[in-house]
Every structure is written in C-alpha cells, then in structure tokens.
Amino acid sequence: MVYLQFCRKDYTDFAKVCFEHFGDKVKHWFTFNEPHTFCSYAYGMGQHAPGRCSLGHNCAIPCGDSLSEPYRVGHNILLAHAEVANLYKKYYKVHTLILSLSLSLSLSLSLPPSLPPSLSLNYRYW
C-alpha cells in the first residue's frame, strides 16, 4: 500500500492550501472526521468507499485484507494528521487556532444485575 504515502503528501499539500486561503477565517480545524469509522467501514467491512474487504465477504472489492488494511490506513491517517500539525506549527502558528481529529465515541454503561432483562436490552447503548 505504497500509495498511502503519496496520499499523506497530497493531504499535507491540501492542508497547506487550506491554511493559506482560509487560515485567517477558520479557527477550528479538523484534519479527519471519525477515522475509526472510516478505517473500519471502508477497509474492514467494505461498506463505505473504496469498499475493500477480504475474500469471501460481501463488498464491492473483495480483494483486500480486512485484518490488516484498517490498521495500515489508520496508521497513515495518524501520520498525515501529525504532518499537518507540524506544518501548522512551523508556518501558520496562530494562538487562537485549534487543530484536532474528530473522534467518534459510543457510550456503554454497566447496568445493575437487578435490572430485568427486557429493560437491559433497551438501555445497553446510547
């Protein structure tokens, strides 16, 4: 997956253009939106573009590796985020600007054992 290294450079170049054109107008920057969701659904299960998954799974391109590709993609997303953060710190540092990842979170609660099973299914996830 050598193309991921080129994608990181392209992404950093894209961020540079964004900082130059919108840096004085935008104060809150997200480099990636929900990277875990993107890695899992696009490269693990193949439900989102590019639709890659392992052989035998039902997806658009069943020639990937669902056990390793999501981790490789996630690794490169973190590297791209770090490169953009370094670019910002080196050339575009403004004390009021915030640069971050947008993470997806799910809340799971531990329920008391005394709760009836019919209710515990309704309140398992929020």
Oligomer: single chain
| Contiguous runs where pLDDT drops below 50 for at least 5 residues | none
| Main beta sheet strand tally, sense and closure | 2 strands, parallel
How does the helix and strand content classify structurally? mainly alpha
Q: How would you spell out the order of helices and strands? A: HEHHEH
Report on the architecture of this protein.
With 126 residues, the protein is mostly helical. It has one domain. Helix content is 47%, strand content 9%. The protein has helices at residues 3-22, 35-44, 69-91, 117-122; strands spanning 28-33, 98-102. It has a two-stranded parallel sheet with strand order 1-2. Helix 1 (3-22) runs parallel beside helix 3 and helix 2 runs antiparallel to helix 3 (69-91). The radius of gyration is 19 Å and the shape is flat. The two termini are 36 Å apart. The mean pLDDT is 84.
Brief rundown of the structure:
The chain has four helices and two strands; from the N terminus they run αβααβα. It has helices spanning 3-22, 35-44, 69-91, 117-122, and strands at 28-33, 98-102.
